[in-house]
Amino acid sequence: MRPSSYLGLLVVTAGCALALTPQGFSPEAAAPLTVIYSLSISAVSDGALSQAATAKQPRLATDKALPGRSYAVIMVDMDVPTENPPQTTTLLHWMQTDLTPSPSETILNTALGRTPVFLLENRRNVIAAAPYIGPSPPARVPLSHRYTEILVDMSNASMAQITKLSQAALKRENFDTKAVLESVGITKSQIIAGNFFNVTNPGPAQSGPLPPTPGAPAPGEPAAPPAPGAPANNPPGTAAPSGMPAPAPVPGTPGSPVGAPNPVATVLPPATAPGTGGGSSAAPITSGASHVSTGLVSVMVATAAALWA
């Protein structure tokens, strides 16, 4: 007997038939990446999410079992404003290596039917190369930002490649995903899955000096993480004295044990339909053509139960 988890989920499926990453982003992905946030959200027709709903590090999953042993996720904001609007730049929001695919499926019981997914887990508690920073678009043009995630197969990567990828994460601003992966020796065939969603500042748009970029070191703070193996001053993902996530050693060295960000395998209380009250539910976002037509968005509310079969 093996467990099949039935999760109560608000699922937003966004994207188009041929692209799982937004226009202008490279490299493209060929399969959907499911991103599961722990907070309830109120999804709108354009697939947008709120800043509050995406504040905490999500869980990741794919719709098919992955054959590899180790994967990395890269999350980038494509629409960071500059001093020369409407020109924009990019910001690395998250890079985590050593994600292991689960061999057993978790069932999302949605309005479109039972959907199996396979979770990715940081089983060795490897500290992130770039700890997660939640979306926080400033009140500048553009107010709406696209946040893109790609999943990279690192199963056959050498330690030198992993180290080089991690070192590239030290510079979050103007992060060029394609150039970084090419410099590490990652090929297009290793881009396994992708996803993107929007978070919008309600505005109005302001002028004047830009606010500090999230993730930039405060005055007097070191820009680089400590030497590999050296402990960070703060647990991974928590705020450093500057208010930014604490720096982390180079991935590949297990960090101090940290709990799973959003333990989706936990049995959840039954979800309640919108407008009827009740508890909250987790919120996955899947981007792919398997559930939607070009330009369409589906919003599905699922019920929750846990069964052993």
Structure commentary:
This is Phosphatidylethanolamine-binding protein. Residues 230-241 have a biased composition (Low complexity). GO terms for molecular function: peptidase inhibitor activity; phospholipid binding. With 309 residues, the chain is mostly beta strands. It has helices at residues 159-168, 177-184; strands at residues 3-7, 10-13, 33-37, 48-49, 59-62, 71-81, 88-101, 106-110, 113-121, 144-153, 191-200, 283-286, 298-301, 305-308. The protein has a single domain (3-308), classed as PEBP-like (Phosphatidylethanolamine-binding Protein). It contains two helices and 14 strands; from the N terminus they run ββββββββββααββββ. Strands 1, 2, 3, 4, 5, 6, 7, 8, 9, 10, 11, 12, 13 and 14 form a 14-stranded mixed β-sheet that branches. Strand 6 (71-81) and strand 7 (88-101) form a beta hairpin. The radius of gyration is 19 Å and the shape is globular. It starts with a strand and ends with a strand. Residues 1-18, 39-46, 217-282 and 285-309 have low confidence and may be disordered.
